[in-house]
Write a sequence for this structure.
């Protein structure tokens, strides 16, 4: 029964990741609770590796849009605009059920980079749009990478649970 419940938590957590919610950390917390409360035998090595992967996923999620904005010719200001815009957009989108935070994060990264780059003295609408598109692609890449890491975390924890540590 514990294995089925934990599998359900992992599946729900993986679905939460593209929505901008902390599914990776939910899996780690569930593993810690199962190991501590139910003596599941997952083991602290699997939990520790999963926690490190969850932290890495968060770092990628919040920095790749800025890195892509810079890669597409943007200034440091555009990188910060993408980072801050994605963060603000994720929170602004929360009132919209289910996909609001995801749409907000993507739109925020785009708009943040666009505004920050367009206000640069040497920039025009074409270059600002190119930079903002880079930020949007970076956000998409970050989401895909975080989703892959979420599947990895789920696999590690489920195998540890089934194998008993």
């Amino acid at each position: 029964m514990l294995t089925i419940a934990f599998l359900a938590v992992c599946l729900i957590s993986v679905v939460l990741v593209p929505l901008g919610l902390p599914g990776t950390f939910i899996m780690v917390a569930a593993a810690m609770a199962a190991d501590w409360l139910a003596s599941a035998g997952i083991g602290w090595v699997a939990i520790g590796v999963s926690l490190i992967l969850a932290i890495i996923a968060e770092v990628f999620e919040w920095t790749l849009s800025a890195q892509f904005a810079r890669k597409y010719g943007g200034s440091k200001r555009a990188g910060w605009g993408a980072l801050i815009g994605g963060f603000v957009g994720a929170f602004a989108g929360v009132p919209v059920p289910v996909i609001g935070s995801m749409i907000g994060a993507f739109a925020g990264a785009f708009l943040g980079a666009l505004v920050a780059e367009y206000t640069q003295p040497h920039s025009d609408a074409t270059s600002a749009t190119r930079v903002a598109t880079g930020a949007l692609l970076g956000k998409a890449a970050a989401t895909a990478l975080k989703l892959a890491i979420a599947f990895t975390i789920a696999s590690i924890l489920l195998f540890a649970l089934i194998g008993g540590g």
